[in-house]
Amino acid sequence: MSSLIDIIEKDITQLQVDAIVNAANRQLMGGGGVDGAIHKAGGPEIMEECRKIGICEPGEAVITTAGQLPAKKVIHTVGPVWNGGDQQEEEQLASCYKNSLQLAVNEGFTTIAFPNISTGIYNYPKERAAETAIKTVKAFLRQNDHIDEVYFVCFDEENKRLYQELI
Ligand code: AR6
């Protein structure tokens, strides 16, 4: 079955999908942006599991309960902090998408929603991030038919426009 890629403009915490992805930090300690929104809406069980996991290196992904959220699980991935582009930011960002999708497949999941990882507090240029996100997800889906639906949750107008142009 072929997979679909959708762009949606909602708060990711409201989505009823198998997994929502969190743009976390290395210490998995919560923060602002989408991370803050997920912990706030999901409740303290998510942080309890994050504490047990400890550290997640940039580009890697880990999974926890979704607490009170409608999604089944939260996949936490740590995007790169933008540092000019020659610090392996692109490879790390691509790994975030790949490793999150692989975790979802390992769990038997078929639907997953991504925020625009690294494009907020971590300052990754939005157009470059969108290109890498789309390219990486499409390549993964070409080699893997377990995922039915991937949602790119575009919270701001600029990301929404970029994703609509690029997909
Ligand atoms: N639903 C969907 N997308 C959202 C939401 C939401 N509720 N809230 C924000 N976004 P950011 P980063 C978008 O800053 O750049 C945290 O403190 C937002 O508009 O959340 O990877 C972590 O703890 C932007 O497009 O993540 C880390 O320390 C995108 O989500 C750090 O920020 C990502 O922005 C990670 O920074």
Automatic annotation (TrEMBL):
Enzymatic class: hydrolase
Annotated EC: 3.1.1.106
Domain Macro: 1-167
PROSITE patterns named in the record: MACRO
Classification via SUPFAM superfamilies: Macro domain-like
Domain of life of the source: Bacteria
Keyword Hydrolase: yes
GO molecular-function terms, A-Z: O-acetyl-ADP-ribose deacetylase activity
Protein name: O-acetyl-ADP-ribose deacetylase
Organism annotation: Halobacillus campisalis
Source lineage: Bacteria, Bacillati, Bacillota, Bacilli, Bacillales
